[in-house]
User: Fold this.
Amino acid sequence: MDDPLVVHTPGDREIVLSRVFEAPARLVFAAFTQPELLMRWYGARGWSLVECDVDLRVGGRWRFVSRGPEGTRMVQAGAYRQIEPPHRLVCTELFDDQSYPGETLVSHEFSELAGRTTVTTTLRYATPEGRDIVLRYPMTRGVGQSFTRLAELLRSTTTTGGEQR
Assistant:
């Protein structure tokens, strides 16, 4: 199956990722903001969240600790800048062992049409060099795999009647 993740680079500091999910925006937004849901989908194949702290308020902090192949550990964290459920979520992001300069501004837009939600994520890096470094990583493959896991979670949540509030 083709990877349904669409990737654009509209400027020298941005990466824009988008994908359609078969679920209402409120459910997709919940999956991005509730630790019990994030722990079920966040991460590329072979990776999983082992710690997930979310203080969902403007100025609140978030921190994810992931474990990958052979026990590899990755920590990323940031602060929430805008929270407009279920339409918009904006935060900063910084990795503990980041290989590029500065904080990244991450904007998630959730647009619902006929029960399907398009998630458009814009990553704005501190420098063009930072963006270029990230583009050399398998980041888009990892996000694609993670979003596939999210699609499966949303499908099971909406078809079993176990919708999250």
User: Anything to note?
Assistant: The first strand starts at residue 6 and ends at 8.
